[in-house]
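Thread: "does anyone have the structure for this chain?"

Original post by V.I.:
We have the sequence but no experimental structure in hand. Need at least a predicted one for the grant figures.
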Amino acid sequence: MGSRSARLSEQLGEEDGTIPRVIVALTMMEGRLVRTRRFGSPSYVGDPINTVRIFSEKGADELLLLDIGGEDLQPSALPFLADVAAEALMPIAYGGGIRTIDHIRSVIRSGFEKVVLNTVLHSTPSLATQAAEEFGSQAVIGSIDVRTGLLGRQSVRSRCGRQRTGADLIEHAKACEQAGCGEILLTSIDRDGSMRGYDLELVRRVASAVGVPVIALGGAGDRHDLEAALSAGASAVAAGSLFVYWGPRRAVLINYPDDCRW
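Reply from O.Q.:
Generated one for you, tokens below.
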């Protein structure tokens, strides 16, 4: 593998012989890529189609495109998603506003290999079952967003972090697995955009409770953070700010930082 991301994956997997996935996570609102902090204060960072093209050229392992606008997926969005997927030379997953099996079929037909389900799993977990039966569990990612309170209590959130669900974290993770999700995307809302490291205890708790791969997201700032999440039990690591910002002033630049070259 010649790309930086491929070298990164190889280096992370040198110790145990496996090659973990390093996933680019992009968030989008109203057709524009944005970055957030703690799921708030979105700032514009680029055009989705052009950005996916750049990451494809850089040889990224995998990519997540998450629409955080909070609206249900509309038919009018599908041509745009098809244009995004057409630029992806790597596996690409889409999440945002997916509520029905027809939504999932449309996203898959648009060129995405996987769908990411979050809010709908709290009301209609059977949708994951339907999707897994039709497309395989590897095509279904269950997304869990978690906010940690002052006393360390973890709250599972839906609707892009805005709504408390009341669900127990571990019970919900197990329910996602049982429903048919082939992977869990685990996001720490508190670490989102911070670039100060993943919530490792959160990763440990969920990874030790489920039998499917856990993707850690929220807080990656350098290679050491990626390694720490993998050591905590994550099967894959995802990052957003790490790959779209450069330097202490957070200049927008699609990149693989120097300290992530192995």
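V.I.: this helps a lot. The radius of gyration is 17 Å.
O.Q.: and The longest strand covers residues 21-29.
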